Amino acid sequence: MPRGYRTGGGDGDLVEVLVDRLVDYKANVRRCAADELGATVAELLSGDSAVVVPAGAPQAWLSAYQGKILRDGEPRPLAVAELDAPGVAVLTGCAVAIAQTGTLILDAGPDQGRRALTLVPDHHVCVVHSGQIAAGVPEALGRLADPTRPLTLVSGPSATSDIELNRVEGVHGPRRLDVIVVL
Amino acid sequence: MTGTGNIVARLPFPVAARKELADTQLRANLRRATHTIRDKRLRVVGEVPDWEELRVAGAAIKDDVLARLPELLERFEAAATAAGATVHWARDAAEACTVVTDLVRRSGATEVVKVKSMATQEIGLNEALEAAGIEAVETDLAELIVQLAGDTPSHILVPAIHYNRTQIRDIFDRNGLLSDRARTDDPPALAEAARRHLRAKFLSAKVGISGANFAVADSGTLVVVESEGNGRMCLTLPETLISVVGIEKIVPTFRDLEVFLQLLPRSSTGERMNPYTSLWTGVTPGDGPQTVHIVLVDNGRTDTLADEVGRQALRCIRCSACLNVCPVYERVGGHAYGSVYPGPIGAILSPQMSGGGANRTLPYASTLCGACFDACPVRINIPEVLVHLRQIGKHPPAERAAMRALSWTMRDRRRYAAALRLARRSAAPVRWLAGDRIRHLPWPLSAWTRFRDAPLPAPESFRDWWTRAHG
Ligand code: SF4
């Protein structure tokens, strides 16, 4: 098979490229140091009365958040109605991010949870560690631990251009996507 | 196996095209859409230094698939089954519809939510479900608009591009989607109305129906590429998921997706990556549908595979790049092609998948300008296949007559000059009324201008001016 295309590396500062592409997709991006993460999360979630988190999300992420915390699976999986309630946001990590395309890959890992969590709430906050950023698509897919897990690739908030080609954010998925890049 | 269902055009292309050409709103909308998307596409393709290498790899992977399709399909079936899915095979549209209808019946549901999918359109699934008393709700915004209007899509990617915002507002209003205060035609307000309407459906649906953009033979994984999140809703929330997949959607390994996930979004919507891509392999306990069915559909694909020149059409990843660069499509729109597959790819795919009848006129729906080949991310040589199909097929009578009239005029310099002069003279009063473009030239050039906006001929021809000035 001819595979003369790029399969890794290149393209300068991966954080800069990722941020540039995410912003281009109308995602809101914050950069912070590891010890500022709790405060950054709390600030981004300040308008939401409750936040849904997967069972394996680190406690430290929510150290400064004042609202209600709903942990999926503890003691039982959250009902879709709970995810759909007004003012509910969701906070997750990701498996890998793709700099060149501004994409977050969720693979249902412990800090990402099942697919419905990042689908139904209207606001998604995603934590990306700088070491999780791959240059391009081939490198990113190659980094996945198990490709048969359910995978969701997210590039910006939900969008449609169906009405006279006007881009409208959020028809069905989260309308607001905040990405925190931890340096 | 010869294809059936909505792959077959009801009317010959020239007859269908005549009706669409009379619609100036359609022509203006299409022009704007195709130009916008193709400009975006050029920009994002331009930023990929290895684009040509990706195209070559994409074409080679698909050719490899076509060369050993039976083996890969069996491998896919084994892997998907091992992962907890149930695989069904359907030889044509009717069989595929029966399989899906039975599965829905068995689930007890009377309503299903659908992700936009060419394969389900191809087999006429919505009509079949309706006949069985099951309502299929299209959840992609554009498909919803088209469905509520009782219409059919006019573009693979932007199916409702032939409607403007006021028309969409009226369609929503007629169907009770708009509350009294929200009778605006503002796109975000209309999208919000659709969101409210569909969310209720998503949260209650027991069965979701999708297509797939890719199916990985090694792992049994299916891939759906989308923008709105309605796909994720249908793939995640219902208890049962039924995916209808054309057998040519196979790629051998997970790694091959690294090529297509780069080629598809940039070619299709002109984005670096589409907002959402979902990949799933059979059943995952505690996450998503716990009953998963996959219906593999032939419907004329093995027929197409039998033709050595024509089979490259099966490489198609339905990006619609060829539609957006096609001068014929830009003027007539998707409906004129009759079949679910419009534009240049439709002109070669539909007649191959279903040989007879009106589909025979489709290979003539082209100027052979070659723009589609340059745009195609998997390097399908569409002009080559068009010429090939014209050679092996019978020429439709209208085409033959038009070409004969044109060659009679062109063969003789005097006849040609006289025709042009006549055109010029009859154009003089029109110029004053219509600016610099005219609708009708007198016969025999009327064959050209009936459906084209031709520039007005210069008041004096170069030849006449030369004779006068240099006589
Ligand atoms: S033929 Fe090529 S350009 Fe046209 S839709 Fe298919 S893949 Fe895209």
UniProtKB/TrEMBL annotation, chain A:
It comes from the Bacteria. Signal peptide: none annotated. Residues 90-182 form the LUD domain. InterPro entries: FTHF_cligase-like_sf (IPR024185), LUD_dom (IPR003741), NagB/RpiA_transferase-like (IPR037171). Pfam families: LUD_dom. This is LUD domain-containing protein. It comes from Phytohabitans rumicis.
From TrEMBL, chain B:
PROSITE patterns: 4FE4S_FER_1 (PS00198). It comes from the Bacteria. Residues 313-380 form the 4Fe-4S ferredoxin-type domain. InterPro entries: 4Fe4S_Fe-S-bd, 4Fe4S_Fe_S_CS, FTHF_cligase-like_sf, Helical_ferredxn, LUD_dom, LutB/LldF, LutB_C, NagB/RpiA_transferase-like. Residues 391-468 form the Lactate utilization protein B C-terminal domain. Residues 73-297 form the LUD domain. One of its GO terms (molecular function) is 4 iron, 4 sulfur cluster binding. Keywords: 4Fe-4S, Electron transport, Iron, Iron-sulfur, Metal-binding, Repeat, Transport. GO terms for biological process: lactate metabolic process. PANTHER family: LACTATE UTILIZATION PROTEIN B. This is Iron-sulfur cluster-binding protein. It comes from Phytohabitans rumicis.
